[in-house]
Amino acid sequence: AKHSGDSRHLKFADGMAQRSITMMNMENDLRHALNRDELELHYQPKVGFDGRTVVGAEALIRWRHPRLGLISPAEFIPLAEDSGLIIPIGRWTLATACQQMVEWRRRGVAPPSVSVNVSVRQFNDSALIETVRETLARTGLPATCLDLEITESVMTGDVERAVNTLTTLKAMGVTLSMDDFGTGYSSLNYLKTFPIDTLKIDQTFVRDVGQNPKDTAIVATIVSLARNLGFNVVAEGVETEDQVALLRENNCRLFQGYWVSRPLAVADFTDYLAQAREG
Ligand code: C2E
Ligand code: CA
Ligand code: CA
Ligand code: CA
């Protein structure tokens, strides 16, 4: 189980009524979570071909709920999106990840960049660009040290606007990753117009790579597509040595997943970075 104790009843509540009461409480609690300092970011490394060189880190949010314990983003991000709380939460996440990078750089252990997840609602918020610009200015983090992970669902809205937003971010020096690549609804057409740097192969394709010939074919195809278009490609959810071997065989050179490390709290990730530097 991902987390212990009470939080199980969020998933397995006895019927809708009870569940919606729980959700209402949760929305209320989430409203205060920011002010009460209950949100935290964990970090997961992205590594190079050797499986050791850290090429980046993804910030993943967790909610340390006073009664329910550590709640995964899968449980509260949808709620945050529906309620609009994702906007202040997203600002906090961006600021916290940038500040953390500045701190790691000061200590000489920083990865080249930190990746921050941006959900559709945040992406469509007219203040996004200003928030990013302001956060970089205030923290002093160079824009090239910030990577934003978006999903194909940003394509379901106003495409021209989406391209403009991405182009503006890109012009600032921020890099862009397409998260969960291959699971969305959009066509390949956007790959021509989106100024993307990296494709992240969704873990559903990585899971059975080498076992299921179709998944292996999909992975191989995404890798060659990415390379032909000049994008980096990261395999996510890499758990086993076998998956790594198959991914390497198919020219995938960047890995993220439990095989490298689980997402770690700041202190543990800082240790990880220091050790990675020592080699
Ligand atoms: P994601 O962006 O696709 O993140 C990858 C998820 O896979 C993370 O789950 C990570 O902990 C998990 N993971 C990493 N390696 C492995 C592995 O080897 N095996 C398996 N089975 N899982 C692995 P997590 O942290 O629970 O996050 C879930 C989702 O919540 C994220 O999916 C992302 O969509 C969203 N999320 C997380 N943090 C944020 C945030 O700060 N802002 C926004 N808007 N969304 C976030
Ligand atoms: Ca992500
Ligand atoms: Ca992903
Ligand atoms: Ca995902």
UniProtKB/TrEMBL annotation:
<feature type="domain" description="EAL">
    <location>
        <begin position="23"/>
        <end position="277"/>
    </location>
</feature>
<protein>
    <submittedName>
        <fullName>Diguanylate cyclase (GGDEF)-like protein/PAS domain S-box-containing protein</fullName>
    </submittedName>
</protein>
